[in-house]
Design the sequence.
């Protein structure tokens, strides 16, 4: 462990950076969830709002992983988020999410209802964009140290 000119250790600075990353992701996650609820509940159910909802879901998955594991890099977070989104979409083929949503409406927000192959593309593209933005932000922060 090395010491910086200000007397703080590099390891401690790394922990603070992870705490900041987690807090930023948590704040962004809250905003994305609110946006998703607005898209789902207040806007007409058309293709554009469906795509927007899917994109917000993918970003929320990405951010939730950063909140839980802020030390993971963008590539790993992206792979996990994409796997989650694809897994949930494929799970819809079982019919269980639709049945659960009929009994407990909030389950639809987490698991969707009906499989749509377009959702897979939206998830993958959105997660790739989120990972790219995350990697760019991390690179800028590293360059400023």
Sequence:
């Amino acid at each position: 462990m090395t010491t910086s000119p200000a007397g703080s250790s590099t390891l401690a600075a790394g922990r603070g950076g992870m705490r900041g990353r987690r807090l930023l992701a948590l704040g962004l996650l809250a905003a994305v969830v609110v946006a998703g609820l607005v898209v789902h509940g207040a806007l007409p159910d058309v293709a554009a709002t469906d795509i927007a909802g899917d994109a917000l879901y993918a970003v929320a998955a990405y951010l939730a992983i950063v909140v839980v594991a802020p030390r993971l890099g963008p590539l790993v977070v992206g792979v996990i988020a994409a796997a989650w989104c694809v897994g949930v979409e494929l799970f819809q083929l079982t019919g269980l999410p639709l049945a659960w949503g009929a009994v407990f409406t909030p389950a639809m927000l987490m698991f969707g209802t009906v499989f749509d192959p377009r959702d897979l593309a939206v998830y993958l593209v959105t997660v790739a964009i989120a990972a790219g933005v995350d990697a760019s932000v991390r690179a800028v922060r590293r360059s400023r140290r």
Summary: The chain has one domain: 10-144. Residues 111 and 128 are 21 Å apart (CA to CA). Residues 10-144 form one domain.
